[in-house]
Amino acid sequence: MLRFSAMGDxxxxxxxxxxxxxxxxxxxxxxxxxxxxxxxFQQFPNLEVVGVDFDGAYQGFAGLLRLFTExxxxxxxxxxxxxxxxxxxxxxxxxxxxxxxxxVTLDKGRADKKALTRKHNKIRRALPHSVARYAHTFQTAxxxxxxxxxxxxxxxxxxxxxxxxxxxxxxxxxxxxxLGIAPFxxxxxxxxxxxxxxxxxxxxxxxxxxxxxxxxxxxxxxxQLDALQRRFPQTIRVAGQLSMAAELALIQQLNGMVCMDxxxxxxxxLSGVPVLSIWGATHTDAGFGPWGQGPEAVLExxxxxxxxxxxxxxxxKPCWRGDLACLNxxxxxxxxxxxxxxLSRPH
Length: 347
What we know:
Blueprint: H1 7-11, H2 14-23, E1 29-33, E2 47-51, H3 60-74, E3 79-82, H4 87-98, E4 102-105, H5 110-117, H6 130-139, H7 160-168, E5 178-182, H8 197-207, E6 211-214, H9 219-231, E7 236-237, H10 244-251, E8 256-260, H11 263-270, E9 275-278, E10 298-299, H12 325-328, H13 332-344
Parallel strand pairs: 1-2, 3-4, 5-6, 5-8, 6-7, 8-9, 9-10
Helix pairs in contact: 3-4, 8-13
């Protein structure tokens, strides 16, 4: 299997791998991806993850040729499942085909997504979820795969001591529900205005005791979270302090997660954590909603109010209106109301 990025897209392979290994317990799977994503698949003993650095030893065509040679030397390959469909995966797939190995390729549904996101005459319908598209790719090779909407990541036991040590250094609010907040996404068109988190946290923390954990990554995001933490000292910044496995172990203990259309949304959903995902330029109809969760997991401005939504599949295009009303028109009070309702549900 070939799926190199992005984090959420790789994580969404886990329900498909689980379904495949249950249906074909004697089969051996190899996943080629970025090294740090191997943690998503440690619960599957018959899956080998080959972590590849495309900026280092496997850069360019020479690097792909080296990777191809190494993959062939590991074990016999009967089928290549291209679940990325980019230039690198096409090269690797072609090299295997030259040796007589069959290959199947993910159908990304580009035409349907273009019709959904174009400016005029949109064709609005719910497209297959990414997990369903992955499963269908296997089915084109005659392999039956039925992912379970109730999928949950397994235990991250090796990271529990790291998480325990981290939590021991914190001042936790006794008997309070644990809420994760992940304010960031890859593109601004998917991010609720950061200054709205001040009134949101003020409303939440004056209504009831809540232990809030702040998630993100990278120096710029950490700086913003640190500023938020200075205003709300009872919050705990997780970003930059834990390994991926320990972060996932913490997410599994949350009572809820507030997030964008982002990788953290997928990690929380795959951990069985109720999410409240805030959507802007993108839309769940494109097939990237939180796996196994319903409309209660989504907060958005209705397309009846903003007919321009969605204007892109990934949120990487400028706002046609120029005002990002899809995000700016969501008040902190509406988010707070939904969060408090989420935390009142049993977990």
